[in-house]
Write a structure and sequence with these properties.
mainly alpha, 2 domains, elongated, HEAT repeats containing protein, ARM-type_fold, ARM-like
């Protein structure tokens, strides 16, 4: 039975050569980086544990304006954060900075999703990023607004973060947002406020 398990594990990671992917993420050209991100994106759902070592390199791509795969890198980070929030939590500062500085960027909704996932295990990592999460509540993407509301609910109950200023905005979302998930998450977050 152990032999079968070993083959099964190998089959899951076929096509994912971590050293090669890491080298490509350090690539000198945007095309190399894009190819590496596509490889991670292909494997992240089926084999997230194998992809976890790419988190620091994916985060670094967010700081490179000449790279055209930031939205895909952000998607991978969000998937990995949902799988293992603790492993992505050390990137919270960079992710929140990106959200705060580029609220309309295509990568922003996925990064907000990452921050919400981080808040599930490490809400303390977001205490200094209330402004970025506040921006999330204004995002055009419903999944970003819902994720921002979720994160605020966790911050309200599990940290000393000053989240009271967003109470009115969450109340507006709970009452008037056109998306039912956003309404539910905002109402749930408000229930967590002291």
């Amino acid at each position: 039975m152990d032999g079968g398990h070993a083959v099964e594990e190998h089959d899951e990671s076929v096509g994912f050569d971590l050293p090669s992917v890491l080298a490509q993420l350090d690539g000198r050209t945007p095309a190399e980086c894009r190819d590496a991100v596509e490889t991670v994106q292909t494997h992240v759902a089926e084999n997230p544990d194998a992809c976890l070592p790419t988190v620091p390199k994916l985060r670094t791509l967010l700081e490179q304006p000449d790279v055209d795969c930031q939205a895909d890198a952000a998607y991978c980070l969000a998937e990995l954060a949902e799988h293992s929030p603790v492993d992505v939590a050390p990137s919270a500062d960079e992710l929140a900075t990106f959200v705060a500085e580029r609220p309309a960027h295509d990568a922003t909704p996925a990064l907000i999703r990452s921050l919400a996932a981080i808040s599930s295990d490490r809400p303390d990592a977001l205490v200094d990023h209330v402004d970025a999460l506040d921006i999330a509540l204004e995002n055009d993407a419903p999944e970003a607004r819902a994720a921002g509301a979720t994160a605020f609910g966790r911050l309200a109950t599990e940290t000393d973060a000053t989240v009271d200023p967003v109470r009115d905005r969450l109340a507006e979302l709970a009452a008037d947002d056109p998306d039912s998930t956003v309404k539910e998450r905002a109402a749930g977050a408000l229930e967590q406020f002291p």
